[in-house]
Write a structure and sequence with these properties.
- The chain is of the alpha/beta class.
- It folds into two domains: about 180 residues, Rossmann fold; about 80 residues, N-(1-d-carboxylethyl)-l-norvaline Dehydrogenase, domain 2 (Orthogonal Bundle).
- It is built from eleven helices and eight strands.
- An eight-stranded mixed beta sheet has the order 3-2-1-4-5-6-7-8, with helices on both faces.
- β5, α5 and β6 form a beta-alpha-beta unit.
- α2 runs antiparallel to α3 and α7 packs across α9.
- The longest helix has 20 residues.
- It is globular.
- The chain starts with 7 loop residues before the first strand and ends in a 21-residue tail after the last helix.
- Bound molecules: 3-hydroxybutanoyl-coenzyme A.
- 3-hydroxybutanoyl-coenzyme A binds next to α2, α7 and α9.
- One of its GO terms (biological process) is fatty acid beta-oxidation.
Length: about 290
């Protein structure tokens, strides 16, 4: 029996990426249930989505009515048990393998549809490790979105040796036909296509700062004006989050043992100091109040 079209979506985590994915799903007409562990994180996640919807309206991408409709389609919970009827779940929490495997084991017990898509937005953890935390690894897949999710049109789809064709086709149809994203497929290798290329570049820029090769501003200016990138590598590191860049680098280093993936000491010290980039108010640059982030 063919699987039903996906209309009930669950998102785990309402940080930068989870909030963005929840927003695009709600804007595309899905019923969206968002999980956060505490009341404070739920409130912060809801505020993040509302700010982005407002930004969509003020930049002319969304009408007031569409913003209202998207808001009505979003609900929040702190109980994973509420995800039983979901046809697609996208996990978008921190890059911590132990926490993610626990979530997948729990989702596997809770979600009833045998062809439900259990997706991770991980940037670099091999999807197979998450699949093997479940009894039905054929439902587990990578769906990797890009920040800011409402703006960037790509989803990397990562199937494992165990993912079923039905699940991967269902995930691709949702990303492409419902969300209007472009899909590329990647093998289940740490970093997938984009981060395997992007992260060594970001780490190289951090090493340049560390060695006094050039200033933060000049490195960024060079790549914006010299290569027409929308933002330079250090501003982009701030946008992605220094902790996230470190976590991706660690995963890729563990997988390939290549020095180019090894996070430089300056990045480690900044993460230890809580200078995580835009989300914490300070990274390579300083940011204003939360509403401006
Ligand atoms: N909803 C809908 N549209 C929105 C929006 C929202 N919430 N916010 C902004 N937009 C639209 C704007 O309307 C504008 O559209 P237009 O070009 O048609 O007018 C466009 O997005 C750009 O917005 P702004 O003009 O406000 O901002 P900038 O021009 O300064 O661009 C940026 C900001 C989009 C962040 C751009 O600098 C950029 O694309 N930077 C690169 C980001 C990038 O590389 N991300 C990937 C990171 S890697 C990753 O995520 C993977 C992870 O695993 C690490």
């Amino acid at each position: 029996m063919a699987s039903e079209k996906i209309s009930r979506v669950g998102i785990i985590g309402a940080g930068q990426m989870g909030a963005g994915i929840a927003e695009v799903c709600a804007r595309a007409g899905s019923d969206v249930l968002v999980y956060e562990s505490t009341r404070e994180l739920t409130a912060a996640g809801r505020a993040r989505i509302l700010r982005s919807l407002d930004r969509g309206v003020s930049s002319g991408k969304l009408t007031e009515r569409e913003r209202e409709q998207a808001t009505w389609r979003l609900r929040f919970t702190s109980d994973l048990g509420d995800f039983a009827d979901r046809q697609l779940v996208v996990e978008a929490i921190i890059e911590d393998e132990a926490v993610k495997t626990e979530i997948f084991a729990e989702l596997d017990r809770v979600v009833t549809d045998p062809n439900a898509v259990l997706a991770s937005n991980t940037s670099s953890i091999p999807i197979m490790k998450l699949g093997m935390a479940t009894e039905k690894a054929e439902r587990v897949i990578g769906m990797h979105f890009f920040n800011p999710v409402p703006v960037l049109p790509l989803v990397e789809l990562v199937t494992t040796l165990m993912t079923s064709t039905e699940v991967s086709e269902r995930a691709e149809a949702f990303a492409h036909d419902v969300l209007g994203k472009q899909v590329v497929r990647s093998a289940d290798r740490s970093g997938f296509v984009v981060n395997a290329l992007l992260v060594p570049y970001l780490l190289s820029a951090v090493r340049m700062v560390e060695s006094g090769f050039a200033t933060v501003e000049d490195i960024d200016k060079a790549m914006v004006l010299g290569c027409a990138h929308p933002m330079g590598p250090l501003k982009l590191t701030d946008l992605v989050g220094l902790d996230t860049v470190k976590a991706i680098a660690d995963s890729m280093y563990e997988e390939f043992k290549e020095p180019l993936y090894s996070p430089p000491p300056l990045l480690l010290r900044m993460v230890e100091a809580g200078r995580l980039g835009k989300k914490s108010g300070r990274g390579f640059y300083q940011y204003g109040d939360v509403a401006a982030r």
